Amino acid sequence: MAVSFTAAEQLARRHRFQWWETLPWIAALAAFFAFPNYLAFATQVLITILFALSLDLVLGYAGIVTLGHAAFFGAGAYTVGMLASHFGWTEPLSGLLAAALVAGVVGLVSGLVLLRTHGLALLMLTLCTMTLLEQAANMGAAWTGGFDGIPGLSFGKILGLFSFDVLYFRTQYLYVLTVLLICFLVVRMLVYSSFGQSLTGVRENLLRMHAVGAPVRIRLVIAYAISAALAGVAGGLFTQATGFVNLAVLGLERAAGVLIVLILGGYGRLYGAFVGAVAYMVLEHFLAKAYPTAWQLGIGVVLVLVALYARNGIPGLAETLRGKRRSAP
Amino acid sequence: MDLITILLGGLASGMVLFIVSVGLSVTMGLMGFVNLAHGGFAMLGGYVIALSMQHWGLPFGWALLLGFVAVAALSVVLERFFYSRLYRATELDQVLFTIGLVFVMTAAVTLGIGPNSQSVVLPDWLKGQTDLGFIQYRSYSLALIAAGTLLVLALWLGFERTRFGATIRAAVDSRRMASSLGVDVGRLFTVTFAIGSGLAAVGGGLGAEILGLDPNYPLRYLVYFLIVVSVGGLGRVTGVFFAALLIGVLDFVLKIYFPKGGTIFIYALTLVLLLARPQGLFGKKGG
Amino acid sequence: MTASAAAPALETRGLCKNFGALEVSREVNFRLERGARHALIGPNGAGKTTFINLLTGVLLPSRGDIFLDGEDVTSLAQAKRVKRGIARTFQINQLFRGLTVLENVCIAVAERLGVGGSMLRPAGRHADVIAEAMRLIEMVRLGADAGRRVVELPYGRQRLVEIAIALGLNPRVLLLDEPAAGIPSAESHILLDAIATLPKDIAVLIIEHDMDLVFRFAERITVLVSGAIFAEGTPAEIAANGDVRSVYLGTALDG
After folding, report:
1. A283 occurs within a structural domain
2. Sequence-ordered list of residues with C-beta below 8 angstroms from that of A102, at least 6 positions apart, any chain
3. Which of the listed residues A196, A203, B164, B197 has the most CB atoms within 10 Å of its CB?
């Protein structure tokens, strides 16, 4: 029974690190040296990767379609911003922890309440929750700075040693890269665990998951809360790296943007967030500023094409093409 | 402002929401398809109406008709070539497609016509005020209320009294059963989609004074249309009617008394409502 | 062996289910003994799958009670009933199509062993889960396909994955909803063998239209017509029952 032994062995080794998994990190480090004048932009790319990773956990693995994930990004961003601005709390690492905690709690509460529904109702509720937070931030101007947000924030030294590099963003980049690495390892662990398998099960066949006795709702709520916490970390990093926070962190534009990133890169594949974020933000950087309307048109066309033909993003499209070539006579 | 004035103003807003959203509710209830691009049809219709009046001097009524027909025709093309391929697709793919479509529509209008807002010039008989006896009120708003009421009555009659309407109701309740009874479900979808989009087009033109008309219209009002449809219950014309009026009045009142972020109440209310009844106020349970 | 003192594996008393005015299940008093090989037959629309859905908790009854090993499970949710020992297969395969056979069964076994929610250890490190899953896969003779994705398997073999998953839950009661449905007759022997090798202590209830399978498998048969029990007995009794023949079996046995 040599074949079946291989199947079990394959499963037993699936979580082991592959050699090519080091490539994105090597590339990220190389970028540090290769693009010293673009580190502010590169830092934003890393933050977007983290945000997209958090969305992948709920969308790609658990199959929860949400248009409101920016609610958690914004919760984390504003937590860091308000702590710094109103309480003088500028220690970066503890600020991040606070961001994760607040966003995680928001995710837990909203998950408990929202995940009782599914389909359109759930989509609506995620949108409503995010817009609700956006309106609340708009109203609570005394705390949140309202429409203008909280500008001009500065933060203390990381671990008491590394101060933020306002000119070249060197510290920020390495700081965000390190946090991204840690968070990525957390997500990777979750995805390869039994918990992650059960999320995939929920996505693949909800009825079956119920029929094997899995506590589906609890699993989804936990995944949602963890994802929210991670999105909150991304938001906190955003405020720390850029030195300001405003309503845009809670807007439909940011929520749709991260969804597009994940779609481009391929969801349900850990590294999809990397591919998508780099592709989207680089393209956006060069095209959107110059030709905003054409950019919108292009994104629209890409989304339509992806929905119709390339269900798994750019990597999926590549796979489909490769498959077609193999089967052609 | 006294109560009547506020009520009339809110009702007028609500009627516009109704006229635009009723098509969305029926097609979503019928096809189970998340069509986030519905507002785009309203916008395109509004543009056809506004521009045909501006550039060709078309009278108001004819412009509305043109808007209905043009957008309905466009929607048939889109439905046959694109939407129909996604009926069995995942919710995510439907969301992606329709968001992409909205982007394309918005960008196309910006590129083709320009980013500025358009206005629909009202005919003389709609300008000014009408004397209702107990109050003098804007004729336009009263006409909107009348139009919306007529529409809901016509739709109700259509659904309850015609065979076509009965077919739609049956298919909304159970697509599988309808098709096993010999209904050509594909053609039903196309016709319903066309009518719904056409109505949205008329709503976009009629409501241009209240909701505005610019390339960002579909995205700006996306959440509101979805709220009206979800709260009303998918496929329930009466449900959409009352939900639209409710949201219209609430929005109107909140914008007057709490101009800064008062609309938060609408989102909170929707949250509470949908949690208590995910199928909406009038929807079918387990849908 | 009739252990009359011991509770039956599964029992319903006065079970009713209405959808509005439509009565789909009517006063069903049903007993499934331990270790039983019991078949439930009846014409289309008799309410057989509804009955299974009621037993497993997919549907809640309008009236009546359900007992699993003597315990009242009437108000328990689906997942909780699974934990108490009921497992089912579906009439149309409900599998994780994008995952491999092994992954499919592992998910079920992991839930049963209580490690389905474990976050810190990679799924691959749960050697006990994998070993047990492989054992079940071998039991239904799918060993060679363990590493293949379900969607790549022929429908008949997918059916076996259904059974392996159900077994992975270590049930006391196993409900098979038309296990032969969709299997070309050339492959049906695979299914028959799998059912024949089911552990003797599990009570098995099978819904089937394939009379060949029913009469070879069942020690006891219940006939359901219009939501109510029409007749019950040994295969010989049912085959000889004139009313059953006219209502249902007539054409099947003659043809």
Report:
1. no
2. A75, A76, A79, A232
3. B197
